[in-house]
Amino acid sequence: MFRNMPQGRTLTPGYTVIYPNREKSANVTTKAVVVLLMLISVALMLIVTIGGWSKLQGMKPVNFVWCLAYLITAYYIWARWSRGLLPIVAALSILLLTMAAIAGTGLAGTSWFDRSQAGFGAAHTIFGSTGLTPDVIGLVTVLLIPIQVLLIVVAMVGFKQGWNVELEVPKDEAERRRRRPGAPPPQPATA
Hints:
The protein has helices spanning 25-51, 60-80, 86-105, 134-160, 171-179; strands at residues 15-18, 167-170. By secondary structure, it is mostly helical. The chain is 54% helix and 4% strand. The radius of gyration is 23 Å and the shape is elongated. Helix 1 runs antiparallel to helix 2 (60-80).
């Protein structure tokens, strides 16, 4: 079916592949900020999930799956510079932003802050003890909103940085680049 497709990458003998955009300090910083914002989001989601366990309506498994998805994508972005996951992170952040805005501000009914009035029961943790107060859960939920906005923006900035750009350079040039940060880009060969 795909007879003319190469089986793998073919490199010119004596050459190697480098990723010049991964060496830039702005790109390294962007990657670190994306991963940090994802870890903060996971921590905030777990605080809400564990601290308000008895009052969450059907979102318990979804919250754990969401945290796991954020942790896995954060690993791949950090360890493997996976640029293709950045739009997925932005999409998940948009969904979480929407849910946090609805739950934190009460756009669809009762917010966490409304639960501090008389007539509402206290939340219990996953372990059965008394959970966080509704005001604390509401504050943590509202804190998710700016974190998700920042995550969307930074993920899209990272997506535009071209982490996947490859250059085929001689092996000695690649060694020089590894030893000396900020080296000039390789010059094209003249014919």
